[in-house]
Design goal:
125 residues; alpha+beta; 3-stranded antiparallel beta sheet; 27% strand; globular
Length: 125
Amino acid sequence: MKPGDTLNGVYYIAEGRTRHFMCAPDGAEKLLYTLSAGWFYGETPCVLHDSTGLFSKTEKPSVLYLIPMQNYDRLLAESSLFREAILQSYSQKMRILRQEIANLSLRPARTGSAACTAPRQTPAA
C-alpha cells in the first residue's frame, strides 16, 4: 500500500507483522509504527473516505484479512466487541504518535554545525 491508494476496507492482521511509514522527498524513511497479529490498519482513510497517506508493507510472511467497508460499518454498529477492538487499535496508535510528537517537539534543539553557525562572509565588491 502506498500514499494515494484508495482502500475498500480495513485490514486485520491475523498473523505476521506490518510496518507503516512515510518517505521524505530525499528517500529517507520515517517509521511511524509496526503492527503485529491482532491489530487493524486502514481505519482512518476508510472512515474519512480519503486515500491513504502512508506506505504499509509486511515485514515477514503475514496473513491479512480485508474487512470490506460495508461489513466494517455493520460490525461497528452491531458488535460492541468489534467496536472495542477498533477503539483499542486507534487509541494505541494515537499513543505511539503522541509520544513521537513529544519526542520531536520537546527535545532540546541541537547545536548547529560549524557550517551553519559560522559568520557569513560577504563577497568583495
